[in-house]
From TrEMBL:
PANTHER family: DYNAMIN (PTHR11566), DYNAMIN-LIKE PROTEIN ARC5 (PTHR11566:SF78). GO terms for cellular component: membrane; microtubule; peroxisome. Transmembrane segments: none annotated. The gene is ARC5_1. Keywords: Coiled coil. GO terms for molecular function: GTP binding; GTPase activity; microtubule binding. Residues 43-340 form the Dynamin-type G domain. One of its GO terms (biological process) is peroxisome fission. Residues 343-370 form a coiled coil. It comes from the Eukaryota. PROSITE patterns: G_DYNAMIN_2. CDD domains: DLP_1. Pfam families: Dynamin_N. This is Dynamin-like protein arc5.
Length: 558
């Protein structure tokens, strides 16, 4: 009998370990998906717990309590300028936290770091962002943690919300508050995230954090509400009825259908882990034991205030351990529910990546000098053919995409401005309202130039200018009147027409440069575009633009 019981216990233990191993593998897979989704903007929905709260709500302290050890980035003020994603994994063999910091540039690369090194990195990021115009970044700092007290959870700790006073002296803080709220709102938009909404209040009619959360999740259907600092709230209640309302608020007070049906209530003992004179706990084990003791004390204090024993449901909502268990089970369920939808997405991404790799292999195999030169010559000839076609006239390129009205052309390429500082009314120019490109746009610009120049009156010529232009020559006995007329005509023409010639050069240069994207569109439409040769195409674009600019400069100098 003893042998059978022993074998049954062994089999049960083995089955339990297999279940845990399966959960760990699933959890690791989702951790990788979360990192890939952040880095490459992939459509994978990787469930995670998003912690949202104000700076005074005890947000970082609760995150520490959930992890089972103290994480030294907590403190007053704005200590987090980037969201911090904590991929926590329960590992009974880790007596001290094992941390891996994922690379910002490549999420598949991680570096083992001590808690102090992680703290230094976070502080350096905060300092860097504090000096930038936008003092916050939505890109997450991703840390993987294994520890004997860690739950199997992915928690995203967001910067604490700020509620500054409305006076002018607080403008900087008000701008910071708007930036933080914008970042947090953007994170809450991810529908796969479970929102952990923290409130530091003893009256549920005060919705400080819920005000922000309910703008994104109005029904609280994916929100877990947590009342923090319970140990400080209990002494504030004078009557048992006040405690009853606080523990089980009426539906009219808490709108929507929140996850878990009712709020959770947590307390985290104050004090830091360390060996200094200000440290309260000598180790994380002592810190974890203090959290458990605080839960027991809160339960006893609540029952004394109520004058009755707490129900099973009420007990399941008190303490960090209850919240942790609820989040673990909820996240595991979300993981399992997401598997059927994620597998087809992964297969689609796999097929897409395989196809792209195949195309790259094909392009690499054709990378020899002779073939590349031949491709370049062919593209050169085709490109010039399309340019010629655009100048002669075509209807292949859609005008609504590539055409410009005269008003658009003036804004983008410059307008003809007279000495009086006024523009010629564009409605008097033929085809002014039509969206043109290529040769047609050239023709309209030249027509406008002739129209403007033709309307200029001859400048007045004074007698003094005529006499000074006559001068004297050794060839003629007296004045060369033909030369005098030419000198006056050239000088007055330069003063009158030269500004318009400069303006015409800028206008025609704009029209010529616009031909480049239109020619590329025609090549793409006919399947003659060089895909996969971006560097070469950028060189072609640079050469074309340089040619256009040098030609315009040469004409202007002449």
């Amino acid at each position: 009998m003893a042998g059978e019981e022993s074998s049954q216990e062994s089999a049960a233990g083995s089955k339990k370990m297999d279940e845990l191993e399966g959960q760990w593998r699933l959890y690791e897979a989702y951790n990788e998906l979360h990192g890939l989704a952040q880095e490459f903007d992939t459509p994978f929905d990787a469930p995670a717990v998003l912690v949202v709260g104000h700076q005074t709500d005890g947000k970082s302290a609760l995150v520490e309590a959930l992890m089972g050890f103290q994480f030294n980035h907590v403190g007053g003020g704005t200590k987090t300028r980037r969201p911090i994603t904590l991929h926590m994994k329960y590992n009974p063999e880790c007596d001290s936290p094992l941390c891996h910091l994922l690379s910002d540039s490549d999420p598949s690369v991680s570096h083992e770091k001590s808690l102090q090194e992680v703290q230094v990195y976070i502080e350096a990021e905060n300092t860097r962002l504090e000096k930038e115009t936008c003092q916050f970044s939505a890109k997450e700092i991703i840390i993987r943690i294994e520890y004997k007290y860690c739950p199997n959870l992915t928690i995203i700790d967001t910067p604490g919300l700020v509620a500054p006073a409305p006076s002018r002296k607080n403008r900087a803080l008000q701008a910071q508050a708007r930036a933080v709220e914008s970042l947090v709102r953007a994170k809450m938009q991810h529908r796969e995230f479970i929102i952990l909404c923290l409130e530091d209040c003893n009256d549920w009619s005060n919705a400080t954090t819920r005000r922000v959360v309910m703008q994104i999740d109005p029904e609280l259907s994916r929100t877990v509400v947590v009342a923090t600092k319970l140990d400080t709230k209990i002494p504030q209640f004078a009557r048992a009825s006040d405690v009853e309302v606080f523990l089980s608020p009426p539906a009219s007070t808490l709108d929507g259908f929140m996850l878990g049906d009712s709020p959770f209530f947590t307390s985290v003992p104050s004090g830091r882990v360390g060996f200094g004179p200000e440290s309260v706990f000598r180790s994380n084990d002592e810190f974890k034991q203090a959290i458990s003791s605080r839960e027991v004390e809160d339960l006893v204090a609540l029952e004394e205030k109520l004058g009755r024993a707490l129900s099973k449901h009420e007990r399941s909502r008190i303490g960090v351990s209850s919240l942790r268990l609820f989040l673990e089970e909820l996240l595991l369920k979300r993981y399992m529910d997401s598997v059927p939808s994620i597998i087809p997405l992964l297969e689609k991404e796999y097929r897409s990546s395989t196809r792209k790799l195949s195309e790259l292999d094909q392009q690499l195999s054709s990378l020899n000098e002779a073939k590349l030169k031949e491709k370049g010559r062919t593209f050169h000839d085709l490109f010039l053919t399309k340019l010629s076609l655009l100048l002669k006239g075509t209807v292949i390129a859609p005008p609504d995409k590539f055409g410009e009205t005269l008003q658009d052309e003036r804004v983008n390429g410059g307008a003809f401005i007279g000495s009086d500082g006024l523009q010629f009314p564009h409605k008097l120019i033929p085809n002014a309202g039509m969206r043109l490109y290529g040769g047609a746009q050239y023709h309209r610009a030249m027509a406008e130039f002739r129209f403007v120049v033709g309307g200029i009156k001859c400048p007045p010529i004074t007698r003094e200018e005529i006499v000074n232009a006559c001068g004297v020559e050794d060839i003629h006995d007296g004045t060369n009147y033909s030369r005098t007329a030419c000198v006056i005509a050239v000088a007055k023409a330069r003063d009158t027409f030269e500004p318009f010639l400069h303006q015409l050069g800028c206008r025609l240069l704009h029209i010529l440069k616009r031909l480049l994207p239109i020619a590329v569109y025609l090549l793409q439409k006919e399947g003659e575009y060089l895909s996969g040769h971006d560097v070469f195409l950028r060189r072609v674009a640079d050469a074309f633009n340089n040619f256009a600019e040098s030609t315009e400069k040469s004409c202007r100098e002449k």
